[in-house]
């Protein structure tokens, strides 16, 4: 019988499937990886302390994320070494605009997530069960070898929530660091302090989603919590990880200009005005297909608000052909990075400074493919 059963078959075969699943789990236990950050409790229960949910899980059951399971009173990751998505992307797609521009990022993900965002763009894998998505077997050592063979200088943990495959990410990141490969992640930031701080020494950059700026939005639209995300941002900043923020603006849901203003003030006061902010356009998907795309005028107004509040690098995402794609010097206002989608057409940053006025442009520039290119050479290549 096929493992992927339709809903009406499941109604009649639930007990059979349960018995089969338990048998399969026991037989494949040697393939699993014991989880980090959990406590063993009485009567075979365990408590996962990786993320703020702190799930208490009985034997044979899984946590909220669907990929961490209690087997015999121990917690195991069901996705360690089992990525379901592998691609080489431009680093700008993460999006990271101030970290090795023009570089390629070897990107990977597994099934699962510890949030339930109604607007998730990768819901087919983030909200799926482990059994319902095909994955490949790839050890951390094999991942690093593949990255080295590809020539990509960066590994990106992305597409789904990297927190839920923490052990896999952590082991890859340590090997990658030893091999001279950078590590970046795109995350919702819903992670506890201890595991985050343990990861930070191997993490070079992060883009964190701030999905809204009030607790009600997080509760209703993501089943998460805003304060935990804000704490993550502060920790990353304090640990010296290069940080950028993405804020998806959904029409009629979180597009209040005053809320945008409050978010920008918080960023400036707690993270610094040099923190890049990506204001991303919503496209109808998953459980919000009844909504319209975000008007470009809404995004432009939000960008204006962010600039009024003193943020130096504010971008508009998912909209091609606007100046919101480009990087401008905060001092002389010259365009220092010219982008068209994910492609850089010109860059005017020399030794981390504006080529026109010498002002420092915040970011991580050393090692990008433009590092040795002079301003004149880049200008000529654009013509």
TrEMBL record:
InterPro entries with a match to the protein in the record: Aldolase_TIM (IPR013785), AmmeMemoSam_rS (IPR027596), Elp3/MiaA/NifB-like_rSAM (IPR006638), Organic_radical-activating (IPR034457), rSAM (IPR007197), rSAM_sf (IPR058240)
Keyword Signal in record: yes
Cofactor(s) listed: [4Fe-4S] cluster
Annotated Radical SAM core domain residues: 98-312
Ranges that cross the membrane: none
Keyword tags: 4Fe-4S, Iron, Iron-sulfur, Metal-binding, S-adenosyl-L-methionine, Signal
Signal peptide: 1-24
Name recorded for this polypeptide: AmmeMemoRadiSam system radical SAM enzyme
